[in-house]
Structures are given as structure tokens and as C-alpha cells.
Amino acid sequence: MAGAAGYGARAGYHRPGPRTHFRLRxxxxxxxxxxxxxxxxKRGFVFRASEIYGGLRSAYDYGPLGVxxxxxxxxxxxxxxxxxxxxVVGLDSAIIQAPQVWEASGHVGQFNDPLVECGNCHARHxxxxxxxxxxxxxxxARGTFTDARDFNLMFRTHMGPVASDSNLVxxxxxxxxxxxxxxxxxxxxxRLKLPFGIAQLGKSFRNEITPGQFVFRTREFEQMEMxxxxxxxxxxxWYRYWVEERYQWYLDLGMNPDNIKxxxxxxxxxxxxxxxxxxxxxxxxxGWDELEGIANRTxxxxxxxxxxxxxxxxxxxxxxGERFFPYVIEPAAGATRAAFAFLIDAYxxxxxxxxxxxxxxxxxxxxxxxxxxxxxxxxPDLVEVTDRVAEALRPRWDIEVDVTQAIxxxxxxxxxxGTPYCVTVDFDTLDDGAVTVRDRDTMAQDxxxxxxxxxxxxxxxxxx
Length: 464
Ligand code: ATP
Prior knowledge:
Layout: H1 2-10, E1 24-27, H2 33-42, E2 46-48, E3 60-62, H3 64-83, E4 88-90, H4 99-105, H5 107-110, E5 112-117, E6 124-126, E7 149-152, E8 156-158, E9 168-170, H6 176-181, H7 183-190, E10 196-205, E11 220-230, H8 235-252, E12 260-264, E13 276-284, E14 287-296, H9 300-309, E15 315-317, E16 322-324, E17 327-334, H10 335-346, E18 347-352, E19 355-360, E20 371-375, H11 380-393, E21 399-401, H12 407-417, E22 421-425, H13 429-432, E23 434-439, E24 445-449, H14 453-461
Parallel strand pairs: 4-10, 20-21, 20-22
Antiparallel strand pairs: 1-18, 2-3, 5-6, 5-7, 8-9, 10-11, 11-17, 12-13, 13-14, 14-17, 15-16, 18-19, 22-23, 23-24
Helix pairs in contact: 3-10, 4-9
Adenosine-5'-triphosphate (ATP) binds at residues 174, 206, 208, 217-218, 221, 223, 290-293, 332-334, 336-337.
């Protein structure tokens, strides 16, 4: 016992009294871009795609923690946009649709970015994003750009074994169009009356000219979009409602209000289908940039698809005896981009008792691992209790059992991946049937009977 206590104390474990607090000193400086990328790589949130072959430029794979974070972001979105509402339903449409969809939506003709090429180094850039329109950011040469030409962002492929013009298809550049083409199907089967929304999340593809900033802008990414259909007279009110609602969603999930703001699009920024758009912007390490756009898309899409398909996609309001194209308010967010922003926002470095501590203060709903179960030693009787505790928790929460290294290092690792609670099984557990629960943020430690552990954690983490 004395040996075990010594081991724990040496390693930073501290058998608590009723409640124990450490004094923290916060270092509030925002993390650099490299810091976040290094953490994401080191802890296996994100890997380079095809890494063993040298990587594929700006394509990424999500590792065990990354996939959990991403899934949690998507679940939180689905919960707030679909599950908790009685006026929004879900959809999962195909990535490859008939090419006419993209002709009608304007993506074939208008989904272009202006591309310039440097005559000196042959690097290609998106003209509207250059800091200095006369200077190549790759080689520094001046006056070497070609004239800007339109570059269509859609990925093309062919359906079937022989590639020909007749079987050209596109990978969807947004999930929204699958919603518009299913407007009547969904309305009918779900027996919906205006106003109502259809939500969808999934992969989208854009052949971006300048992808970059890690997972912020990639060619394959995940979107979370909802099309909210309403009478045109109510469209402005719903637009304001959804702008506020979506802004609040990020705050409710713990984003620092200093790092998030709304910005209205200027007249010349508006997409061809929109009469009003506001972006939710995040203060990324390189400056303010878009997380999500909320747009009033008018009746553009339903009208276009009606015209092109010959199917009447108007809504019939029985009470008013009126048939019309509903207006659409669209909150369109990036799941991969949001996960990245939550990661940046959660990153904190502190000094605790003169030692540095890195902690991800992720909201527990987003944290990849909710509870870590840590036996103080690898002795069989402790491991046996650990297994029992883990079995009780596993059906309810994503947990991890870690038996390696000194307890202090294990705490530090869990802090660094944002695990809200560490449960330590120590030698006293064998006598008193209790474990120590350590809170990630306050580092307070509570002694809790194993029989009460699920309730204790359930109160703090939710039902699981
Ligand atoms: P941006 O101005 O950053 O290119 P956008 O205005 O073209 O974005 P939308 O068409 O409004 O983007 O798409 C909705 C959301 O999808 C964006 O707010 C963003 O979060 C996400 N998104 C768009 N393009 C990408 C991309 N290449 N990589 C990752 N996420 C993206």
C-alpha cells in the first residue's frame, strides 16, 4: 500500500479529500496554426491521405479521435436541426445525380472561380483571393499572371465502363440540390405543411483551385445543410430566425463568443440565387473566415427544377387556395470545417504548479472520449476492478482504458485529447469500493462509490 501511494504521489495522482482544487494559471494566447496541426497529427485526429505514398495534396483521413469528434459535431447538428424540431425532417440523397440537376441549378454554367497562372513558376491561384493581384504568392514574381479565366469547380467522372460525353456525371458540390429535387417526394410522404425544412449531411466535392489551411478548405469535405421552405411573405422573418439560431448553435456548444461573429454579404458578393446572406465567421489563426452561410435563396431552385424537369414543384396551400413556389432559407455549414474550428477554440495551454498543461476544453458532447478509466497500477486485482468499471460505462459513453505509464502522464494525455472525466481505480478501491473522478477543467477530484458512478457521470455528461 505504501509503495502504491508513493507511486501515485510521484506521478501526480493525489488521493482526494472531499474535493480538491489545484490553482491554475491560464495562458490566454491563441494557439498558432502549427500548434493545432501538430496536435491533430500527433494524437491521430487527422492523417494525410495516402501518407505511405507521400500523401495526396490537401486530402485527409480522420483517425480514431478525429472521426469521433466529427461524428459528434454532426450528431449535435442533427439533434438540434432535426430531432428536437417538429418542422424539419431528414434526407440522404445520392452523391451522383443526373447531370440535368447541375445544369438547372446553375452549377454547370456558373459554379466557377477565376483562375490565374503565374508565367514564372506556373503556380495557379484563385484570383479573387490574392492579397496582391499583381504578385505571385508562390515565387514573388510581379506582373506574371495570365488573364483570369473561369474554372468550373465540379468534379467529373463517367457512369459505366466506357468514358464518353454521353455518360458524363458530376460529384455533388453541395448537398442542397438533392433536397430540392426531392421536395415534392418528402412533402408528400411526411405530409408536411409550410413552413418546413429538409436537412441533409454528407460529403461534397469541389475541385478548389487553392485548397489549404489544413482541413479548412479541401476538395472532399462534409456539409450540413438544411433547406427551410416558407411562404415568400414570411421569408425575411425566417431568415433572421435562422441566422440567430445558427449563430447560437456554436455558442451553445461552447465556442468563445470573442472568436465568432456574423457578417452580411455585400451586394456584389451575393451568389446568383440569393437576395441576402450572412456568414457565421470564426477567428481562425490566419484571420476571420467562413464557418457557415445562411442565405435567402428565394424560389430560385424550385423554379429552375420545375422548368427543367417539367414537374410542377409548386406548393398548394389548401386554406388559401393558392399554388406557389415557396421561398427557401438555407443554413449551409461545413462539418469538417466546424470540427476544425471547435478543435482550435478548445485548445488551451496553462501552467499548473509550475508545469505546462495542454488541455482541450471541448464541450463534453463533442469530446471524442467522455471518460478514461485508469488503474493506478497493472496489478491483477486493480485491473479486474478496472474492467468491471469499464464494462459498466461502455454501453453509455465512449470510454478508453489506459494502463500504460505513470498516472500523471495519462492525465496529461487525456487533457490533451479533451476527455472530460478520468476515473482512477487505486488500491483503496479494493477496500472502499470507490474510485476517484477527476474533472478535466477544474482538476477537482471526487471520491465516488462504484455503484454511484454511472449516476454521477450521467448528471454531468447527459444520458449517454
Ligand atoms: P468559401 O467561401 O469558404 O469557399 P462557400 O461560400 O463557397 O465557402 P458554401 O457554398 O456556402 O461555401 O458552403 C457551405 C459551407 O460548406 C461553407 O460555409 C463551409 O463551411 C463548407 N465548405 C465549402 N467549401 C468547402 C471546402 N472546400 N472545404 C471544406 N468546407 C467547405
